[in-house]
C-alpha cells in the first residue's frame, strides 16, 4: 500500500465522523460526571442549621425537614426543668452551615429521672464523707437523723422513711436522709462498756488478784 493510499483511507469521511462521535461521547461523559457529582454532593449549596434546642422532638423534626435536613436521636438525658421528649443538645450546633440532607444528631430529655445505686457509705464513712459522695452523684441530702452511736458516723441511709441498702438503685429525685451517730449510747450499751472495763481488772477465773506487800 502506497503512502498516498494510506493517508487517503485514514482521512476518509467515515473515519473522521467516527472520531468526531467518539470525541462527543467523551465530552458528554465528562460533563455528565461533573454535573452528577455537583448534584449528588450539593456543590455550592449551604443551609444554616436552625436552633431546635428546647423544642419537642416532633416540632424539631418538622423544622429540620422544612430546611432539607434530617434528625437522628443518639442519646437521652434528664433535666427536670424541661418537658419530656424535648431536644437537649444538637450537633452540628445552631448557626453552622451544612449541605442539604445533612444529619443533625440530637439528645432528648427523658420522661423518667435516672436512678443511681447507693454507694457504700453505711458503717464505712463519716457524715461529711457520705454527704459529699451522695451529692456528687446527684442526690439531694436532707438534714441527718441522729441515732445512738459514735459521733458523726454513718449507720444507715433512708429514703422516704425506708432504709435503703448499698447498691440499691434510687431515683435522684428522691431525697435521702443519713442516719448519723449522736455520740451518745443507750443505757444497755453503757452498762456493757462498764462491764467490759471491770472484766479487764479480773483474772482469767473471774477473781480479783490479791497483792502482797513486800517488806525489806
TrEMBL record:
InterPro entries per record: PASTA_dom
Pfam families membership: PASTA
Keyword Transmembrane helix included in the entry's annotation: yes
Domain PASTA: from-to ranges: 44-110, 112-182
Keywords assigned by UniProt, alphabetized: Membrane, Transmembrane, Transmembrane helix
Highest taxon of source: Bacteria
Residue intervals passing through the bilayer: 15-37
UniProt keyword Lyase present: no
Protein name listed in UniProt: PASTA domain-containing protein
Higher taxonomy: Bacteria, Pseudomonadati, Bacteroidota, Bacteroidia, Bacteroidales
